[in-house]
Amino acid sequence: MIKNIYLVVFITIVLTSCQNKVDLIVHNATVYALGDVAGKTTAFVVDNGKFIAVGGEELVNDYVAKRVLDLQKLPVYPGFIDSHCHFLKLGLSLQQVDLKGTRSFKEVINRVIHFSKNNELNAILGRGWDQNDWKDKSLPNKLVLDSLFPDIPVALRRIDGHALLVNQKALDLAGINNETFLDGGTIIKENGKLTGVLVDAPTSLVTAILPVPTVQEKTKALKDAAAIAFENGLTTVSVAGIDKDDIYLIDSLQKVGELDIRVYAMISNTKENMDHFLSTGPIRTDKLNVRSFKVYADGALGSRGAALKKPYSDLKSHKGEFITPKDSLEKLAYMLATTPFQMNTHAIGDDANRVILEAYNKALVFSDDPRWRVEHAQIIDTADIALFNQKIIPSVQPTHATSDMYWAEERLGTDRLQGAYAYKSLLEMSGRISLGTDFPVEEVSPIETFFAAVARQDKDLYPEGGYLSKNKLSRIDALRGMTQWGAYASFEENQKGSIEVGKVADFVILDRDIITVKESSVLKARIVATLLDGNIVYSNRIN
Hints:
Urease, subunit C, domain 1; TIM Barrel; Diaminopimelate Epimerase, Chain A, domain 1; 3 domains; nine-stranded mixed sheet; six-stranded mixed sheet; 18 helices; 27 strands; 31% helix; disordered N terminus
């Protein structure tokens, strides 16, 4: 009888231990769980890739874990979400001439020459130049490229992705001459001659004749981009415009474990893409979500392609361009409102924002929870801000404000700046705001995104007091915009975006608390580790 009692006790202890043995316990941390968890906590438990308990230090005694992390009060946040980026383009840009940070056109040319000498090429591709950073802020001219590279096409994309500088060889191959015209963009000329600068729609003529990256090159690009994302604390990227074949490539790599990062894919709204996905419907796996179309209303402010109500202050004869005609935007909105897909529209200028907001509001009358997005929502007439509401989410990139502030007033004048980069006003109207970077246009850095949102300053802490400071976000709102609200904007708030029981165990550990440190110290924050499904995908300390 006594033996039987001991046996029962032994079995009970073993069973209890087995039931409570989990993959990971994190404790002695400063945990910003967000979601429904009030305030800060200190510990959580992860098993099978999900949070199964969130609370205090008592969790250390409640569970037996394969691994325990004592974080010595380090801050922990939900995995960062970049709500608007160009993921594949980031990886591919590593295989091209890097022109970011160039301070003159001469430096652009020097980098191209250096790249051409060190690579065997049948075309020279590059990205990142910005004439606004040069002493001479005029758009460049192809003449030097023509003399250096008469027999090979050269295509150098502006930092915003909306303009190309090409040489004569590229123009010839694309069939572009003085008589060429294409709606939705501009072919820049000087004294009646082509300069080689193409803005928006005409760039597609050159793209069509350039070498297409191979599957191997794209695979490498995706893996390289994922590594960079993890190093920066990103666990999810929302890809703003991607084609069908590249979506299926991402899916195939994720399924065999070669690409871990989570992807929210906005489908480029070409006819081929739309016909396919409207027929097949959305895609949803553990790491891939495809349920939105990316639409372009207009171009970019830096290349004067943004569609404005009144002419540019520094180019009185020009109001920018609609890439998609106004009536087509409205028709597209009505059509997509009858489908399960989001409509996520690039809108920079005040005219583009007005048109798309009016189209959204008309189309969404009978939609209860559409979560349609305005990507960038950059320059808005103050009278039109009220067109935002809880059905329409502003998806913004705070570092655009601190990059553009050096020249935005030249483009817009003082009055139009009152509705520019108006993040706080947009949040008040919509109730939520999602934050991203637009990388590779800007740096892959949620920390810089956070700082630009709350301080409205660049990395040099300029300007004192912040740029258009009335639209600063609070620190908690900025954090929610990079986590919880980013997940909501992609219909994924039940899966991620906060540290809550049942959600995937995506989280990031920093070396300082960006919610409480002195504002000027936020940019010094570094990623200690990034974990996806409770597994370390990047670390500079934890093995």
